[in-house]
Amino acid sequence: MGLKKHIIFQIASIVLILLAVVYFWMRGDVIFTYIRTIRWEYSALLLLSCTLNFGFLGFAFFQICKLSGIRLRPLEWFGLTICNTMYNYISPFKAGLVAKGMYLKKKYNISVVQYSLLTIKQNIFSIVASLICLFFFTHLYLFLYGWNEGEPFFQTFLFIGYIFIGLCLILVLAFLIFKKTRLYSKLIAYLSRNVMGNIIPPLKVSAIIFVTYVFTLILTAIRFYICSLCFNFDINIPGLLISASAINLSFMISLTPGNFGIKEGIAGLFGALMNISFDQAVAISLLDRAFGMVSVFF
User: Fold this and answer.
1) Which of 36, 187, 233, 282 is most buried per CB count within 10 Å?
2) For residue 30, what are the CA distances in angstroms to 22, 35, 209, 277?
3) What DSSP state is assigned to residue 206?
4) What does the alpha-carbon distance between residue 131 and residue 109 come to, in Å, rounded to a whole number?
5) Would you call 272 helix, strand, or coil by DSSP?
6) Which of 212, 218, 231 is nearest to 285 (CA)?
């Protein structure tokens, strides 16, 4: 999809979303009824958790940049994360990445290829962290509650997950079988030269970045839990952790500015796992988004 068509598509998405909001507001939808009953005493906690989330995301980006010899100051990596989020909210396309790239090019003379590699590394760690957490929290939910709720989702996701694990085991087995052959030596040398060094950081740094992204996922769950307290909803914690993992994954594909509507839809779909209704889950997601925008713009 060309840039012009992409912009038109996202502008049309914004218009449709706004029309839907106006429609549901005029008919007195239950979601807006929930919003009118918010307990505002939790506002400070929500703003703090949003700020911490930006801090963890910025720190992960700092660690990734450091591998390329770019040592960002704390004000830079935190500010770039804020600016990235702000531009993504107000722009009909993912302008946050462009703005961040322009700053790094001007300040540190980073090339387009280098910046693309930095972005790829970010996405890889975010996806891996979200998938591992999603897999782990799904098993935790099954251990506590069994298969009664959300059975189709669990069957599909776990089937895909076990296929992935099986493929990984096959690769490990192949490694053990061929590790003393000349082909293996050439393959490892090629990967080290062209892939490992460019895409995958050293183990210690990878662990730090991975744990940082896990913390951002947990902070998403904490924000949702605080939002549930604002509405006096009784929320299921394991289901909440599954929902937070899925929401973090959704940000890898941005169809609308700030993923508006996508995040809320995913939260609603996972509402049953959180022991709340679709409308309640959407209300929680909207409140979380509102405080996220306040922390960015103010």
Assistant:
1) 282
2) 13, 9, 40, 11
3) H
4) 34
5) coil
6) 231
In angstroms, the CA 127 to CA 267 distance is 18
Question: Which residues of the chain register pLDDT less than 50?
Answer: 1-3, 6
- At 68, phi and psi to the nearest 5? -95, 10
Helix, strand or coil, per DSSP, at residue 7:
helix
- Three-state DSSP at 198 gives coil
The count of other CB atoms within 10 Å of the CB of residue 254 is 17
Count, residues in the chain: 298
Residue 154: CB partners within 8 Å, gap ≥ 6? 138, 141, 142, 147
The two three-digit tokens of residue 36, written as one number: 């009118």
d(CA 263, CA 49): 18
Confidence at residue 218, expressed as pLDDT on a 0 to 100 scale: 92
The pLDDT score that the predictor gives to residue 256 is 66
Q: Which of 51, 117, 118, 115 is nearest to 85 (CA)?
A: 51
The string over 193-229, giving b where at least 16 C-beta atoms fall within 10 Å of a residue's C-beta and e elsewhere, is: eeeeeeeebeeeebeebbebbbbbbbbbbbbbbbbbb
Provide the CA 101 distance to its chain's centre, in angstroms.
20
Cα separation values, 237 from 156, 218, 229, 244, Å: 22, 11, 13, 10
Return d(Cα 10, Cα 1) in angstroms, integer: 12
Angle, in degrees to the nearest 10, between helices 203-231 and 278-297:
110
Residue owning tokens 């770019």 = 70
Domain extents in the chain? 3-297
Q: Amino acid identity, residue 254? A: S
Q: Are 123 and 252 in contact (CB under 8 A)?
A: yes
Alpha-carbon torsion (98, 100, 103, 105), positive or negative? negative
pTM: 0.75
Reduced to 3 states (helix: H, G, I; strand: E, B; else coil), residue 88 is: helix
